[in-house]
Write a structure and sequence with these properties.
173 residues, alpha/beta, Rossmann fold, five-stranded parallel sheet, 7 helices, kinase, ATP binding
């Protein structure tokens, strides 16, 4: 495998979990873009948002994404949920690799995954339980045109992480 494999999707869709399993199965390095940004900036994503705002964060995110995509090392990269929706991210991703995968899940499953970790998710931490479903539906609607530019759309509802990894492996030549 000489290519990068890029996983995208909404927060809670399993990008990091699947990315680690896939990287292990393919004997490739794994990079979580959010973790990469936190190491480079020396701050948590939530701190960057709070201290410098979303515009600063999105500019840095794009620069760090480019850095990973430009690296000659084949790897599995898990993007942040919003990464594909800003700047030229999808253009860069599609040009860098033929293997971008949208891990698609319905709102109900995303809610079940996100509610237990609500406090650790800056985008929903401030929302009431009642407002989260509406927020997720609106966000998914807005992000759908970006997510669906991935080379592969992988419906993940009801699949185990191992099954998702196997589905991705069948698409990689």
């Amino acid at each position: 495998m000489k290519e990068k494999i890029i996983l995208l999707g909404y927060m809670g869709s399993g990008k990091s979990t699947i990315g680690q399993l896939l990287a292990h199965a393919l004997d490739l390095p794994f990079e979580d873009l959010d973790s990469f940004i936190e190491r480079k900036e020396g701050k948590k994503i939530s701190e960057i948002f709070a201290l410098k705002g979303e515009i600063y964060f999105r500019k840095q995110e794009q620069a760090y994404l480019s850095e990973l995509l430009d690296s000659p090392t084949p790897m599995v990269i898990a993007l942040g949920g919003g990464t594909p929706c800003y700047g030229k991210a999808m253009e860069l991703i599609r040009a860098a690799s033929p293997y971008s995968f949208y891990l698609q899940l319905p709102t109900s499953e995303l809610m079940a995954r996100l509610l237990p970790e609500k406090a650790k998710r800056p985008l929903i931490a401030h929302l009431s339980f009642e407002d989260i479903e509406e927020f997720l539906n609106k966000h998914l609607f807005e992000r759908f045109p970006f997510y669906t530019q991935a080379h592969f759309i992988l419906p993940c509802h009801g699949l185990s992480p191992t099954e998702i990894v196997e589905k991705i492996k069948t698409q990689i030549k």
